[in-house]
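User: Hello, can you help with two protein structures?

Assistant: Certainly.
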Amino acid sequence: MLPASTHNQIGRRNFLRVGAIGGMTLPHLLQLEKVFASDTAPKSDVNCLFIFILGGMPHQDMWDLKPQAPAEIRGDFQPISTAVPGLQISDVLPQTAKVTDKFSILRSLTHTDSDHGRGFHIMMTGKEPGAGDFNGNQNNNQHPCIGSMVAKLGTPGALPPYISVPNFMNSGGPSFLGASYGPFVIAADPAAPDFSVRDTSLPISVNSARSSRRRTALQQINQLEQEAEKLSKQVRSLDVFYEKAFNLMTSQAAKEAFDIQREPDTVREEYGMTSMGQCCLLGRRMVEAGCRFVSIENGHWDTHRKNTWSLRELLCPSFDQAVPALLNDLEQRGLLDSTLVVITTEFGRTPRINDLAGRDHWPNVFSVLMAGAGIEGGQIVGASDKQAAAVADRPITPEDLTATILHVMGIDYETVLKTPLGRPVPLADGGKPVFELFS
């Protein structure tokens, strides 16, 4: 498959260029652009699986190999053919190579911060952070994360609109949107034998009748308090949490979605009995049940030492099993057209291998994968230079990635929200969707 820059012969830019040369009038151009835009129109029923590879995927060892570069740059992996003619990825991903027709590779992501925590914030929110320490698994958002944007503006379903597994993700919070738009956190590894999701069932000491009486009493008290207009914002917020918790505990759909034991052993084994595999499977169950945005963290990819060994022996095997299983499963269930899959990371790795046989942090250029929800598979968008050190074609920013996700999910990426003090805050901060991705 040719890169998107040549594969998509009728792109928006080409439309305008051809129109200018051919003497089309402005009304004609606007009409054509409207037709083109309709082909990539967002859908309000799309859900998202947002898989964050924590630590920094080495793009030149997985998605963007440079076999002609010197040994200290190209590394130990070899490019292999894939399901898409002309598209090659690393030999450390043989199973993923079989499903390249289902995803596109964006090879020209770029930003300027090589710190893990700040990189998390940039990629989780599409916004560069200001001063401060952004390391540590904490709610340190200066801008709402994408999941919270979806929770605020997306159409809700049966489950919480934003769920995070297997923990709260760094910079995965709602910022000024408020805690009610934060994630429902599944703080447990679904690969564990005793895995269960807390807070999805009533305490044993509280039966259904008693719970209903409590809820009715709360509603009556709230009505009196609201009439008196004496509720503080804090109490109102607690009521929101109570209502959400009650709905979750009494929802049969939620209980079933979180119960991964309902899956046949053959399906669980297809994904792999690893954290990556079972988180992806649980994520599929949650979007299938109506969760709008599921964030999945897969960590320990910070390969400053023994990069080759780490990828081959520890990191890529579970990834290479889980990702193809997820994409195949979504397709077989008829869910791929309504599920956006994003596989991202905070930055790439240095072009040159260091003295410890590792690669260090490199935000200048790196790769991200996107699949489903109208994205055409088998594409390459953008390119790095001969050493995988800089963008050579079609730079894509985190703001662009955010805008693309929101657009696909039917949310206006140009939306401007206001902080409690009235300061206007654009969601995607000037980013534009990567329209080359769409068929």
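That covers the first. Now for the second protein you mentioned:
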Amino acid sequence: MGAPIVYLIGAGPGDPGLMTVKGLECLAKAEVVVYDYLANPRFLSAADPDAEIIYVGKKGFSEHVTQEEINAILVEKALEDGGKVVARLKGGDPFIFGRGGEEALALAERDIPFEVVPGISSGYAAPAYAGIPVTHRGITTDMAFVTGHEDPTKETTDVNWEHLATAVGTICFFMGVKNLPIITERLMTYGRSADTPVALVRWGTTPRQETLVGTLGDIAEKAAAAKFKAPAITIVGEVVNLREQLAWFEDKPLFGKTVIVTRSRAQASDLSERFIDLGAEVLEFPTIRVVDPESWDPVDEAIRNLQVYDWLVFTSVNGVGQFFDRMEEMDTDARALAGCRVAAIGPATAARCMEHGIRPDYVPSEYRAEGVIEGFCERGVGEGSRVLIPRALEAREILPDTLRERGAIVDVVPVYRTVLGAGEQSVLARLAEGTVDVITFTSSSTVKNFMQLAEGTDIAPTLSQALIASIGPITSDTARDLGLTVGVEAEEYTIPGLVEAVVGHISDGSPE
């Protein structure tokens, strides 16, 4: 039984990198997470895996869950089981048109402790990502945040249009797309010039960002013609003209592209972040899940006898992590490897070894097993050499078999298994819609499992339109065997190499 507390967290405008450190800390210790439509679901990966997740999204005037119901959920969950830690994730800042004040009052009325964690507001973040500073010396030193979400059927308005129209240089309207004709008409009626520049920024700070520029006189017509929809920020003022020189986000090489990452959830972050940094929208679809071996006995026996081995060969990042975790379980550490040379296949595997205090003696320049053998022979691996390979249960046999053919005594111990992942069907729905540009595969297992998880879905027509990107020839062969057309293959069989290949392909304008 704990003490109840609710954290009202501003999750920022959408870019996961714009979540505050304190917000992430509060999210990580929450037992219940309540999030809304504008809070990026990727934040949920920072929550405790055992936390209860409650979606209370609302769109426009059509509410999925009323504000009163949300207030009641926060109160109920905070008091549940004698008191729980609740994180309420709200898009932007909770106290800037986020109705966070209402939620705080509901908690205060029940004497439930709460803390407010401010967030970066889309009111200035979305314009910044569109290349529009909301204030600029020589243009304007003042601005206003205004709700554009007033119900147009109301008999009176809470906005003082007569003074607002000309009182400040920049006006940022939240949630105003639906009422755009009314907003522009009222501003012009009360003295704002029809030639005043206006920009609409939809899904600001995310790879789905869209920007539409016009004037007070024509922006409503342009938005209707473009079928421009919420959520969007409307910026009114001369600062909009700076976008021509300052636009930066939309110029990223993969901006507007949607990429599916099929690695396990634990490994996806590196690849995902690289694509996100280049402007892409990333849909994570974990096709594999790494689990412990059915028995640790062979691994434990090998660890107890490390002194008999000449070489310890790691073929993957997972293998390194699982092996050293098991060493810790057996109350030993890297000092047990003092008499053993270590090989790491691939720079990522080598880097993981370094994290455990081991600098590999051999990191092949080629990452396939076929290209590794020669390097081992040059280093004296042959007749009578003792080699230990901790790896996945399902790995290829070519490396141990070839070493045995050359006289080495090779012990292969499975330190993990890969099983079928649980990719969300919503990702396959995006693929079926034809809104996915790239699908990445980093191993044969990811290809096989992807196709298995996609069985029974109607993705065939659009699957052929997406760029299939493979990390190397073995993965490519598996993809082709399963009927896929590989559009690009990494020259260097690494995560950076895969990203570089995708960027190069798209930058060259190659057909997908």
